[in-house]
From TrEMBL:
Highest taxon of the lineage: Bacteria
Annotated segments matching region Disordered: 26-67
Biased composition (Basic and acidic residues): 41-65
InterPro entries reported in the protein's UniProt record: Beta-barrel_RND_2, BSH_CzcB-like, CzcB_C, MFP_Cation_Efflux
CzcB-like C-terminal circularly permuted SH3-like domain segment(s): 264-324
Entry GO CC: outer membrane-bounded periplasmic space
Protein name (record): Efflux transporter periplasmic adaptor subunit
Keyword rRNA processing: no
PANTHER family, alphabetized: CATION EFFLUX SYSTEM PROTEIN CUSB, SLR6042 PROTEIN
Native source organism of the sequence: Tardiphaga robiniae
GO molecular function, one term: transition metal ion binding
Stretch forming the signal peptide: 1-25
Biological function: CzcA and CzcB together would act in zinc efflux nearly as effectively as the complete czc efflux system (CzcABC). The CzcB protein is thought to funnel zinc cations to the CzcA transport protein.
Amino acid sequence: MNKPIMFLVAAAAIFALGAGVYATAPSKSDTQTAATSKAARQGDKAKGEKAKGEKGHDEKGHGEEGVVEMSDARVASSNIEILAAKSETLHDSLVLNGILQPNQETLVQVTPRFPGVVREIKKRIGDTVEKGELLAKIESNQSLSVYEMRAPISGTVIDRQISLGEYASEQKPAFIVADISTVWVDLSVYRRNLPRVRIGDRILIDVGDGGKPIEASLSYISPVGSSDTQSALARAVVPNIDMRLRTGLFVSARLILSAKPVAIAVRASAIQTVENRSVVFVRNGDKFEARDVELGARDSDNVEILFGLLDGDKYAAKNSFIVKAELGKGSASHEH
């Protein structure tokens, strides 16, 4: 074979080989498409793993926003009081301080008829006595005979001023016997409030024993005041049911000036603030929901709810701040 033909054959082979390499090599656009597809698949995988992780977090964590899960046992141990939203009467009131006094109209001072030496004592402070019951025996200095002191009324011995063997004078009461089935509630009214107070006004007396307030009405307002306290006396006569009222103890009373009925109200202690919103924690099953509410009028005990609650809704009244604290823990853990 001559040289020209050999050169032609070699050139053709080289050309064919170059064309084959070009045909099998990936183009630039194909490379970019493959890279984009791979990145998309990795992104989808990452999103799936993240969603799975978040789902697992919600299942183990705090659930719905604004909701606190708390069992009935936990509610009881936390001393959270559950009440129902309902209609109430709000009161504009005046708080007065006072003291429980024996009813002076049912009280008798028992004084020796003759001076002498105390030979026997039958009753002490706190004992109940019937009319005519023996209180003590005294030996008269005049006749040297022993005479008896007996209870002039039925009641309770609230004071005793004699001791065995001592000299008893007719100038000083030996016993004070009182019928304590009723007591006086003496309240101090400062001069600036006197124009607002009238005989017959209704009062709610807080005895301070944790029990229900006692309702009564004013029966007396003193026409004179005290120069020391710059106040005047207002009094109510109150039945002493179950001997709950003990003379000598301090009390407070709310004098009702006006009353306003409202359709829905909750205890003032139920209102909490969450992110600058007024909320009430409504009980639903074993959960508390932070329910936004619109507030209306209020008094020292209750707050009117204009919007956000229905009649009968159960809510956390006392110690609702514990539920708020649990809600705060849940919010903090969601931020990690």
